[in-house]
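Why does this matter for the project? Reviewers at the last site visit asked to see concrete outputs rather than summary tables. In response, this paragraph embeds two records directly. Each consists of the residue sequence and, immediately after it, the corresponding structure tokens. Nothing has been edited or filtered.
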Amino acid sequence: MPRFSIIVPSHGVAGRLSLALDSVLAQSYGDFELIPVCDAPGSPAADVATGHAGRDSRVAPVNSPPSAGLSGARNTGLRAATGAYVLFLDGDDTLAPGALAALDARLAETEGPKDVDVLYFEHERTPWWEGEPTNPAAPLLAKTPAGAFSPAQAPQLTGVQLPAWSAAYRRAFLTEHRLTFPEGRFTDLGWGGLVTVAAERVAVLRSVVVRHLLRRQGSRLNLPGEHHHQLLDQVELVLGAARVLPPERSHALFEQLFAVVLKTASRPERLPSGHRAFFRRAGRLYRSHRPADFRAPGGSLGVQHRLLASGAYTAFKALRGANRSASGAAERVPRPRMLRTRLRYARDLRRPLDPNLAVYCSYWGRGYACSPAAIHAKASQLAPHIRSVFLVEPDAVDAVPKGVEHAVIGSRKYWEVLARAKYLVNNANFAEGVVKRPGSVHVQTQHGTPLKKMGVDQSTYPVVAAATGSFAKLLGRVDRWDYNISSNRHSTQMWERAFPGSYEALEYGYPRNDVYYTATADEVARVRRELGVPEGKTAVLYAPTHRDYQTGFDTGLDLDAFCVAAGDDVVVLLRAHYFYDQGRAKSTGRIIDVTGHRSSEDVCLAADALVTDYSSIMFDYANLDRPIVVYADDWDVYRETRGVYFDLMEAPPGPVARTPEELAQVFSDGSYAGAESTALRAEFRARFCEFDDGLAAERVVRRVFLGEPPETVPPVIPLAERVPAPAATLVRS
């Protein structure tokens, strides 16, 4: 009996089938049988398979009619298999060199009284033309136990999130449970769910085994058509089998299944007809199979869960498109797609640049905020001859301050000012279709000091790289920059790595941080009143960052319990990452939700102390010289999946807490503001608050808008001579 049976369906991929078969036959480990599944004798794929069989006796082709589909082909291969473990390989994919040897070694490591039923492994997704490969399985597998384990020990690991070819299956296990691929489309989901329910002992291999080629035309499953209704058939099949699972396992499986369902439900273009029927059937499945005590996830995904559960199709229809994935925010900025708009934009590009026109944008149009707003305000004082236009999304128009001229993104005015402006200032990037005109000046302000990997440095971190998209296009946007603003030398160096280009680095400090040195005690008090901070209370700002490997927002901390443990005088200002800003506050008790507040600078001014994990807000807040506590409950996972430029645990801005108990302790005993905390913060400020002194916006305006030479702009004030804005309830050490 061979160690492995490798089943390779080949329908529609005859042109690449030889690469797949060769990648198996070239393995250093040779104890396997290779089973190509072809349409019929004499077909192009069958000719390829027959040729390989003539050269190597381990190749044993079988036939399955195209009408049987992918599930039929795989089941035919299963019936022919004789190996101890079964693997699947798509006909246009390849095995990585050394893959079978690594699988054999890993299986040997996990041997025990009973062999593992399933061995999950990583895979690469390779773009058909340009871009970096991604490894979407890595974050999921990284959070699993080291050896063989029961599925109850890692309930988040299910076959729902992995393709069938991202695991090796013990054939006796499949036979015992009579597991076969369900008929119809989305068979991987049904198979993965059924395997998850039946498996009793699993393990993982944290290395790439399969290299999957992404097709230029994308997955056929994503094309519009009635086949999307079959998704619910597979979900219903798995939900029925999952009734035997304990709650800790059924919850994770249920949530993952409906994440797939909601992804389809939120894309009505995939269902030309029957979208309402799809939603209603999905709602019935949700209600009838929802596990006891199941809690919907946070953020917009949780809202979709609740709407589905209640059958609120009209509300769901209104919501869809408004709560897209955070990582796609930049892609949602419109381009001049319509013919009339393209023609107008092309005409305006032929008109002369307006030397006295400046265009600003912040966070892809979320509002008047961050460094672009600070530069805009200073330009109105020092360069009043320049007309300034702020670009905003339609839902942010009401938040634009009075007297600030604006243009709605996508409007005729929007494209007109982009075509004619001499100065363009952004803390992200302008739309893909914006042309960099000769003589125009693009200023990139950035919106944080880089702790996590950015730009092209993300290419080796699969989850982030997948969200970033084309690095070639990213670098094309970087090529538009003339100036890139930096707040410290660390940032300057990291930006050069992450965004290689010909721009000039302006080590002027972040204009948005000027207010930390210019705000008065009265202004601090005003902001606290506006936010609802009770007089005399210690306001602790809790600002967790975005996790690329999570869906939706989770505080990661019981804030009510923290308040109780930290003391009666503590209130929490909760500020989630702007990706999760739903535009409405959810304040309760001593928790004040300030996520939707326009200005993060105001929120920082109001806070007497900061608790954060790995958010770049810590670098800005350090300018205030107020206590900072790092809550690092998942540092190792974050560092491995997101990538970081330095070890924050070795150089924190204050005490580090790993558990909720440790976090409460540093506040209850006062050590969060003690001598050790002060010393750590002083070292952190010296490194990362290097150029922030309250004059950054003035430097930018004088250099960029007024054309003053570098030597005449105001020099940076030494750190020891700066006086930060006063805190409300703490005396600075």
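We now turn to the second protein, recorded in exactly the same manner.
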Amino acid sequence: MSASRTERLLNLLIALLNTKYGLRRSELREKVYHDTTSSDVAFGRMFERDKGELRQFGFDVEAVTDTGWGSDDPATTRYRIGKESNRLPDVSLTPEECTVLILAAQLWEHAALGSAAVDAVRKLQAAGGLVDAELPTGVQPRIRPAGQAFEDLVAAIHAQHPVRFSYLAGSTGQEQERLVEPWGLGSRFGQWYLVGHDRGRGDKRFFRLSRLTSAVTVLEKDTFTPPAGFNVRAELAGLAELPVQSAVLDVEHGRLLGLRKRAQPLPDAAPGAAAPGRPAGTDRLAVPFRDAETLGEELASYGPRVTVISPPELAAAVRRRLTAAAEFADRPLPDVAFPAAGRAVRTRKRTSEDQLKRMLQLVPFLVHNQGLHISEVAARFGITRKALEDDLRILICSGLPEGYPDDLLDIQWDDDHVFITQALDLTRPVRFTVDEACALLTGLETLNSLPELAEGGALESVTLKLMAAAGEEGVKAAALSGPEVAPGDSAILDTARAALESGAQLHLRYFSAQRDAVSERDVDPLRLYSLDNTWYLEAYCHSAQGLRNFRLDRIEALEPNGRPVAATAKPADSFPVKLFTPNDDDTVVVVELAPRGTGLADDYYAERTAALPGGGMLAEIRFGSTDWLPMFVAQHGGMVRILQPEALAAASREWLAAALTQYEAFPDRPID
């Protein structure tokens, strides 16, 4: 999108903000658009499109018509934007409320709505509503990224567009295409659900995102109206949890310790010995589960080390993932080419809308932060200095149509310090968009599951203030509901938090799923954080002599060892905390991601990415341990494959082939 469109939208906005009685379409066409060549119909379409763009930014363009003769003539209609109707109301927050709000915004920092949360906080900062706040020790929850489907569905819900996707029905086990009006998206029982109207079945339906077998297609030319007063949390509250079932598995003897902790041995032959219908070197175990797809994803990652004997739907779930992964691995190889310069990141293509949104935040920010160094301003907005200077050059050329020099935005940065002396009624932030309101209010609702925050009054009071400030857009936030973020075992969390506060070193016994082994370590605790309700301890491990991240639910014992922390390392400055700390001796792996799996580039901190035809992606990722990569490929069932090094690619193909072979060799093994 050209910069000229950004400039046109900005000038149109300033013109409509600074007119008391309104401007006719002919005046706007002449003074703002400088349009002399297009037809009236073509110009009308452009103008309507631009009005829609401004509406998305929070500016409602009002049409004023004169009463009496000719009042229905479009030529006599005047347009303006009320100076107060689009402004973010003043929001005054206490330090305690700011702490809660920042935690709510950080929930989304590495997930869908992350940029919206940042924009919303920036608006509050520009309005002077945020004060300095200190985050509490050990309370840094995050929402786990739910993949590209999540982001596409959130966009479709807010824009009220139907969606199309392929779905594996839990009741029939059949894969079918669904056409759905998405009403809301929420988390229940540790799974994300879409609630909407299934047009093919003419009724409301619930869809688990983990059962989507294709990318989500948004039908942008179609719209729908959701039910009045819809609340996705209330809808999901009526869902009954699936009953507990028992899976019968043959597990390689002495392996998969994590799975064995949840299992019961079945009475047959001695462990590892041959038995009727069971190969030697395996143990037959019974594992409780509620959902075949969830357990199937885990079991697929174990490849040939486990075979599902029953129930059939669980075996089918595992086979389907293994087959999809094997078929993806056998496809013709793409050309591996990354951008020649710099580190590429997976981002959506920048548009003029992105630039204008940033400018509308930039002007009030500069008004309230006069004299900041230009590099600091660029860093605050997450852009390069060149991109910021491009923005500023457009801003200083924008103003009232055919106005005098004093009618232009006046910004100077000659000495690398940025000053603004003429803001043309852009001094206050625009009201929250639906994405911004949704990011903050859903984040605050999610924090209710943390007792130490829910018990105080700050969470409730800041929620009420933001609901009032968000207005109608805040009501739409009921279409999204976050997961529980409280830890499953609070005792381990409390021990780790106490050590952080006192500076005590910890001794832990830890089960590593990647190594399939239990080890004992002394660590210096640095930080606690979470993904949904899975909590992690970031610590300096004296055994590994480096930073490590330990899942609390895999810590079998944790206690102070009587020594203070050695102050050997500090937590990373960035947030969110990376689950994987890169090292110089890591293996650089090139993977191909299918369209449904492009979110894995973010999850595993890809250093370089490159788009592929059809929506897929190449990603270059560092891995400290490569032994588990075949498990990684199998688990994601056709969403990722290894391209380089070839030895790792071959190992993953062999792993998948061995896993599939055991199902072919024993399709109907009896249960003892």
